[in-house]
Amino acid sequence: MLRFGVLAGGGGTNLQAIIDRMEAGGLPDAELSFVLSDKADAYALERAKKHGIKQIVVDRKALGERFDEELIKAIESESPDLIVLAGLMIMIPVELCRRYANRIINIHPSLIPSFCGKGYYGLRVHEAVLKRGVKVTGATVHFVDEIYDNGPIIIQKAVSIKNGDTPEILQRRVMEEAEWQILPEAIKLISEGRVQVSEGIASVVPAE
Ligand code: GRF
Predict the structure, then answer these.
(1) Which residues form the pocket of ligand 1, taking CB atoms under 6 Å from any ligand atom?
(2) CA 180 – ligand 1 centroid, Å
(3) How confident is the model at residue 207 (pLDDT cuts 50, 70, 90)?
(4) Which pLDDT tens digit goes with each residue over 62-110?
(5) How far apart are CA 18 and CA 27, in angstroms?
(6) Which residues pair with 122 in a beta bridge?
(7) N or C: which terminus of the chain has fewer CB atoms within 10 Å of its end residue's CB?
(8) Could you write out the DSSP letters of every residue in 132-197?
(9) Which residue among 92, 179, 180, 181 has the greatest number of ligand 1 atoms within 8 angstroms of its CB, and so is best to mutate?
C-alpha cells in the first residue's frame, strides 16, 4: 500500500478529484494519510475534514523564516511514500527535494516545457497561453526536483483552445479535461509500481 500526503494551498479541486477516485474504488493500492496546507483557511483542509482525512497546517505567514524547517519536520513525522503537490504556491525546500527524490509529484496546468517555470502559476499560465495564440494546451504531472517545473514528466494530457476562451474558461476546461484525470492516474500508476525513472526520463510500464 502506497501511503501518500497531499500538499494543497487553495481551493483543493485536485485534492477532491483524488478523494473522489479513491471513494469510487479507483486507487485500491493507495492510502491518503494527510492533507497539509501552508494556510489555515485553505478550503482544501475543509475537504479533507469532510472526508475524515488528517489535516496539518504549517502556517507560512506565522512561521516566516522557520517555514521550511517546520514543513520538513511535519512531513518527516508522517514519513509518506509519496508527496503530491496540488496547488501549494511555494518552492519546495531543496533538502526535501533531495530526501524525496522521485517521490514528490506536482500538477502543472500547461504542457511542460511550455508556459512553466517562475511566474507561471494560476491564471497567469492561461493568460500567457491565450496571449501566445497556441491552439493546444493541457496539463502535466511530473516529479519534482530542485528546479521549478523541471523534473521527469509522468503524464501529459492535451486540451484544445476554443474561440471566445477567457483565462477563467480555459482554466476550468484544463482542470476538467486534464488535471482532475491525470493527477489521480499518476498516483495510481505509482501505487502499482509502474513508473520508472532513468537518466531523467520517467516511463510507464504497461499493465500486465
Ligand atoms: C491547479 O491549477 C494546479 O494545476 C496548480 O494549482 C491549481 C490548484 O487548484 N498547481 P486546486 O487547489 O486543486 O483547485
Answers:
(1) 8, 10-14, 86-87, 107-109, 179
(2) 10
(3) confident
(4) 999 999 999 999 999 999 999 999 988 888 999 999 999 999 999 999 9
(5) 9
(6) none
(7) C
(8) HT-SEEEEEEEE--SSTT-SPEEEEEEEE--TT--HHHHHHHHIIIIIHHHHHHHHHHHHTT-EEE
(9) 179
Residue located nearest, by CA, to atom 14 of ligand 1: 13
Ligand 1, atom 5, lies closest to the CA of 87
Averaged pLDDT for residues 110-129: 96
CB atoms near residue 117 (< 10 Å): 14
What's the mean per-residue pLDDT of the chain? 96
Q: Are 101 and 122 in contact (CB under 8 A)?
A: no
| Residues identified as active-site | 108
Listed in sequence order, the residues at least 6 apart from 187 whose beta carbon sits closer than 8 Å to its beta carbon are 2, 4, 18, 27, 30, 82, 84, 105
pLDDT for residue 2 is more than 90: yes
Is residue 37's pLDDT more than 90? yes
Residue 54 carries which side chain, given as an amino acid letter?
K
Question: Which amino acid belongs to residue 180?
Answer: W
Query: Which pTM was predicted?
Result: 0.96
Q: Which atom of ligand 1 is nearest to the CA of 9?
A: 12
CA atoms within 13 A on the CB side of 171: 14
Q: According to the model, what pLDDT value does residue 28 have?
A: 98
